[in-house]
Amino acid sequence: MEYQEIIERKKAILSTTIKSIPEAVIADVKKQYAEKCKGSIVSYERAKKVIPAGLEHNLGLANPYPLTMKTAQGATIWDVDENEYVDYLMAGGPIILGHKVKEVDEKIIELLQNYGPSTGLTCESEILCAEEIVRLMPGVDMVRFLASGTEADMLAVRIARAYTGKTKIIKIMGSYHGWSDQMLLSSDRPGTGNVHACGIPKVSYMHTIEIMPNDYDALEKAFAENKGDVAAIIAEPTGGHAGTFPNHPDWNKTMRKICDENGALLIFDEVVTGFRLGLGGGQEYYNTIPDLTVMGKIITHGYPSCGAVGGKHEMMSLCHPGRVAGKSAYTGGTMSANPISTTAGYESLKCIQKYDAITKASDYGDRITARLNELFATRKDLPFFAYNIRSIVHVETSCPSGTFLVANSRGVSAEEQKLRTKAAEDIYIALMNEGVLLLGDCKRMYACMQHDENALNKTLAAWEKVLAMIPVQG
Description:
Blueprint: H1 3-14, H2 23-36, H3 38-50, E1 69-73, E2 76-79, E3 84-87, H4 102-114, H5 124-136, E4 142-146, H6 149-164, E5 168-172, E6 208-211, H7 216-225, E7 230-235, H8 240-243, E8 245-246, H9 251-262, E9 265-269, H10 281-285, E10 292-296, E11 307-311, H11 313-316, H12 339-354, H13 357-377, E12 385-389, E13 392-396, H14 404-410, H15 414-433, E14 436-437, E15 444-446, H16 453-469
Parallel strand pairs: 3-14, 5-6, 5-7, 7-9, 9-10
Antiparallel strand pairs: 1-2, 2-3, 4-11, 10-11, 12-13, 13-15
């Protein structure tokens, strides 16, 4: 589906009344769900006593309660009550080979038996993994591993400032670049600023400039008003949240051009897109090469401490400890580049290539998108639709994330935003009750190479049941 059609169809959803599951029906769904998930409820009650809000992970929903998983295999997850789910959460995107990859897991077991988890000294796997990333990513000459995507975003910004000697960072609204003070702005939806966290002084944002997605005039203005002091633009190559706010086809190249004209760096946050859209990431897929690349998630395929920054020699060379002459974009991290992470990263990258995982997952993304749209078309009263960027599948029902698209023309009240979010979450809960696990409020599905015809049929059957819960209108 092309960019303009996606935008117009989002606007069409926002121009109609919210199509939701009636309260009585969703109450019954929640009752059924509670009966099936008693073990998860018990876990949640225990967790609330020792974990804030009873939830460590922001990938699922706490409404009505978070699932507690027992095991996973391929494209399937089982919870502690033995309920089975077709998994499209995929740990937030990193699982493209499927859960429990034998070849990777065996290498980790061998590592632990022969070496241990970490010593603080160089392990060969960190060199192998870095070499493989450099070989695959067109914009990467050197790699510095870190413990998370948030850390990687922080370092990329520091490198940009150290290299250019400038201070301002342009951030595209609706993109998530971790939870550091300077980046936690409009990270769910454009124009929302800091609605997430207290404890961040306003001064933390004084060098972060926000602009709306695809706003060419605002981009030009930001450089003009801060002439000579913009260090970098940081952006997702797909658009915010892996394409929830899709980039105009010319947007990446426009950012590249204006950075070059103004001596600024272009940072691509490829935490989700790296090794999912292609072996060369989103930069290869969109044919736009950034100066710095932020990576995470998929480079360790679900194993912990997954973060990295890659880029050109002259920029990455600044990542020394600062005990030598010259500039330093100091970085640390005792567990960064630990043997478990880098072994998992290297072996996963080899398996992704060996099994052609990106193509297989993308083919499934195409198929399920097409079949969902066929199913949605049977309900002429519902403006629902799906679109995909290879294996990243988006499903729009009430479009809570897109309300900024109509904000200037008619205004969107806080109450409408709340209702649209609830409508999407209710559909998510109903799908979970039917054994389909998506990301968050029913907004995104990640495909892996092990999603098959059986998973497709189960997913479509679940959606068909959920659609039947929404009363026919008109």
